[in-house]
Write a structure and sequence with these properties.
This protein is α+β, with helices and mostly antiparallel strands. It contains five helices and nine strands, in the order E-E-E-H-E-E-E-H-E-H-H-E-E-H. The strands form two sheets. Strands 3-2-1-4-7-9-8 form a seven-stranded mixed β-sheet, with helices on both faces.
Length: about 180
């Protein structure tokens, strides 16, 4: 991934399991520049995250400029699984899930099984089986492309934008930002 590419970092707002929907904030930026913000809602523990991401990016004025979509993990709004291969196929951008800690796929599957059933476990397992997991720049990354490894600086920029999305989402829903990415 070349320097100066536009990144869309997506993060959900705080929610409870009794909420029907939660706000997702997207920050569009590149090295040293924040260029825009998008927002949309997804269902808590639903199945609409991928559809909402596709719809929101396509209708954005930044759609043709975004080259990377950074996510804080492979699920959003509880257990709403994000289909990274579908995002890559339809948007022609590289999705990358970034976390501080090593992804615990079995734990995620166990939670999905208890709360939502076998279909969601299958979706999580199918997604995770197709992802390359690597530690880059102190963070764990999950991505589809096994050939082009992101530079630590790119991962760091993604984390910075994810943190900003987290702060905005938290501030909008709680009235004040709180917590750490």
């Amino acid at each position: 991934m070349k320097q100066g590419v536009r990144i869309l970092a997506l993060n959900d707002s705080p929610f409870t399991l009794s909420d029907k929907k939660t706000l997702v904030i997207g920050i569009i930026g590149r090295e040293g520049v924040i260029e825009g913000v998008i927002s949309f809602y997804v269902s808590v523990d639903g199945t609409d995250s991928t559809k909402q991401i596709l719809r929101s990016v396509r209708k954005s004025r930044f759609a043709d400029q975004i080259k990377v979509i950074a996510l804080n993990g492979t699920v959003i709004a509880g257990m709403n699984v994000i289909d990274l291969p579908m995002i890559k196929k339809y948007l022609k951008v590289e999705p990358i899930a970034i976390t501080r800690t090593k992804p615990h796929h079995k734990l995620l599957e166990d939670v999905a099984r208890r709360r939502l059933g076998k279909e969601r476990v299958h979706a999580i397992r199918t997604l995770n089986d197709g992802l390359a997991v690597e530690k880059i720049g102190g963070y764990y990354t999950q991505r589809i492309s096994k050939s082009e490894k992101p530079r630590p600086g790119m991962v760091g920029l993604c984390v910075h934008l994810l943190r900003l999305a987290h702060l905005v989402a938290s501030g909008v829903t709680r009235g004040e930002s709180k917590g750490r990415l």
